[in-house]
Each structure stands twice: as structure tokens, then as C-alpha cells.
């Protein structure tokens, strides 16, 4: 556990659909079913000709101001620079149902490449299983991290719920609502630099914070599997040529100096993954969720 600041791996993974997968990451995690290889109903050699010729909608299944929203609104304008034709990336917040409404909207969108969205794992796994309202924490991920972390470390905990997002519950811990909190690195570090919180432990296999015990030192290597991933995906059926265009555009955007500088300032590590590697991570995280879901899913 941590004293008003924790070590939940936080990752923005940008799907490069067929050709590559690009991750904007801060520790690891996985993907959602929508990120799996698209179902292609027919190949059209000219599918990407002239793409895009209108704005691309970017579905954010959560409220403005949170981590998912911040990532999209920063990276989106950079993506525009690298599209083969002039078009705007238009963020659309669909904040309802703990993210489920936005995911459903993305899934039902026309598979023409003009609608993409950002997803959350393990939040989507929890939503698939859970009945009733979603749990507190950023789409259930902090909830999952806290319950699993407490079980692994043998800690007795009392969860305090009702906060809208990661910043809210870290601030709540600072003002004394709780004794400790588990939060993502980018969220945590801004408060660490301000001297408002002290990190007690890292869930990383090897802590990136000097002098802080990590999963290895704690004798609980499984802590390193606790993660949240932000994955960009499209509806099933997007033509491969358009997938490739989006993929290459995203890869170029993540290599842009402005994005690299922002990632460094935000304590985010960027790296690329092949689709095969991404699927392997997805399967690993799915298996991890299945192992622990009895502690995470109620109803």
C-alpha cells in the first residue's frame, strides 16, 4: 500500500491494428475484445483511397478531465498532423455506465475508420462481469488494484467509495478521508513532487522510484501484473487498408517530439508492440483477471 500515493501501472496503448501496436505506457496492461484483429467482410484495394475525407470521431467513454480524456485531447491534434489528408480528430465524451455506453457506441459504429475510441483494461473485464453500478475508482481499475494488492500483501482494508476519478480519491486521501491509496504513476507523481504524498511501495517488478520497495522486494511478484491499459480501437470490420493508415498515423504521432516530451514530463514511458505481443499481453491480463475476479465482481 501507499501513503496517499501508489504504484498502479498505467498505460496508454495505441493499437496499430494490423501492422503494429504502439503503446504510450506507464507500466503495463492489456486490451479489450474490440482491439482484437478486426472482422473483415471484404477487401477493397481502394478502401483507403482518399481516407480520411471527413473528421474522425474519438469516443472517450469517461468524463472530461480524467486520464483517458487528457490522453486523447493531447495526442489527437498530433495525430491530425500525420493523417494523409486533412481532417480533425473530434473527442466525444460518452460518460455513462462506467464506460459501457461509450464502448457500446464504438462497437456499433460504422466500420469505416471514422470512429475510434479509447478503452480500459481491466475495467472492461469488470464491466462485462459485473451486475449493477460500476465500482469506485477509475472505471474500476483502482478498485481492482486495491483489492488484489491487499490480498497479496495480507492487508486488512476498508474501501471508501464515491469518488469520480483518480485525482479526486488521491486528494481525498491527502485531506484525511483514508490512510492510503493506490493510484497510477502519472497521477501519483504530481502529488509526490508537490510534497503532498509519500510512496510506500511500488507494484513494479523493479521500482522506478529510488529507495521504494517493489514487488520483488516485497516477495509478491504477482503485484507487477496489476495494471491499467488505455487502448485505442475501432469497430469490427474496418478495412485492412484503413487500419494500416490509422496504424501508421498513430505510430508517427507517438514518435512526434511534442508527444515524447509530454510523455516524459508526465512520467509515461513509450514503447511499441507488435499485434502478436499485444495479444499475448491481453491473454495474460485476461488470465490474471479470471484468477482474481471472485474478489472483484459482485452481484
Order of neighbouring strands in the sheet with most strands: 4-3-5-6-1-2-7
Total strands: the figure is 7
Oligomerization category of the chains in this entry: single chain
According to CATH, what is the topology? D-Maltodextrin-Binding Protein, domain 2
pLDDT averaged over residues: 75
What would you call the structural class?
alpha/beta
Terminal residue distance:
27 Å
Largest sheet: 7 strands, mixed
Strand-and-helix sequence, N→C? EEEHEHEHHHHEHHEH
> Radius of gyration in whole Å, from Cα?
19 Å
Task: Please give the share of residues in helix.
Answer: 25-40%
Number of domains: 1
Number of helices: 9
Q: Characteristics of this structure?
A:
299 residues, alpha/beta, D-Maltodextrin-Binding Protein, domain 2, seven-stranded mixed beta sheet, 9 helices, 7 strands, 36% helix, 14% strand, globular
How would the blueprint of this fold be written?
Elements: E1 9-14, E2 21-26, E3 56-60, H1 67-82, E4 89-93, H2 100-108, E5 115-121, H3 123-129, H4 141-153, H5 166-174, H6 185-193, E6 227-233, H7 240-254, H8 257-265, E7 269-273, H9 275-296
Helix pairs in contact: 1-7
Amino acid at each position: 500500500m501507499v501513503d496517499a500515493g501508489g504504484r498502479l501501472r498505467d498505460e496508454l496503448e495505441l493499437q496499430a491494428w494490423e501492422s503494429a501496436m504502439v503503446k504510450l505506457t506507464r507500466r503495463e496492461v492489456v486490451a479489450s475484445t474490440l482491439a482484437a484483429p478486426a472482422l473483415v467482410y471484404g477487401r477493397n484495394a481502394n478502401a483507403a483511397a482518399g481516407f480520411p475525407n471527413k473528421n474522425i470521431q474519438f469516443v472517450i467513454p469517461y468524463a472530461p478531465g480524467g486520464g483517458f480524456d487528457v490522453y486523447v485531447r493531447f495526442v489527437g491534434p498530433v495525430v491530425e498532423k500525420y493523417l494523409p489528408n486533412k481532417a480533425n480528430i473530434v473527442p466525444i465524451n460518452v460518460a455513462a455506465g462506467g464506460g459501457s455506453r461509450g464502448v457500446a457506441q464504438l462497437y456499433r459504429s460504422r466500420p469505416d475508420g471514422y470512429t475510434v475510441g479509447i478503452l480500459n483494461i481491466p475495467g472492461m473485464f469488470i464491466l462485462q462481469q459485473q451486475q449493477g453500478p460500476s465500482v469506485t475508482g477509475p472505471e474500476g481499475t483502482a478498485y481492482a488494484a486495491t483489492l488484489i494488492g491487499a490480498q497479496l500483501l495480507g492487508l486488512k482494508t476498508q474501501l471508501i467509495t464515491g469518488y469520480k476519478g483518480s485525482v479526486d480519491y488521491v486528494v481525498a486521501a491527502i485531506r484525511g478521508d483514508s490512510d492510503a491509496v493506490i493510484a497510477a504513476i502519472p497521477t501519483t507523481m504530481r502529488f509526490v513532487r508537490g510534497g503532498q504524498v509519500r510512496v510506500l511501495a511500488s507494484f513494479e517488478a523493479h521500482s522506478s522510484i529510488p529507495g521504494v520497495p517493489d514487488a520483488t522486494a516485497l516477495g509478491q511478484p504477482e503485484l507487477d501484473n496489476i495494471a491499467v491499459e488505455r487502448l485505442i480501437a475501432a469497430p469490427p470490420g474496418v478495412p485492412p487498408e484503413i487500419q494500416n493508415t490509422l496504424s501508421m498515423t498513430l505510430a508517427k504521432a507517438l514518435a512526434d517530439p511534442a508527444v515524447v516530451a509530454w510523455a516524459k514530463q508526465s512520467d509515461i514511458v513509450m514503447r511499441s508492440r507488435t499485434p502478436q505481443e499485444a495479444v499475448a499481453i491481453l491473454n495474460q491480463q485476461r488470465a490474471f483477471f479470471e484468477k482474481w475476479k471472485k474478489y472483484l465482481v459482485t452481484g
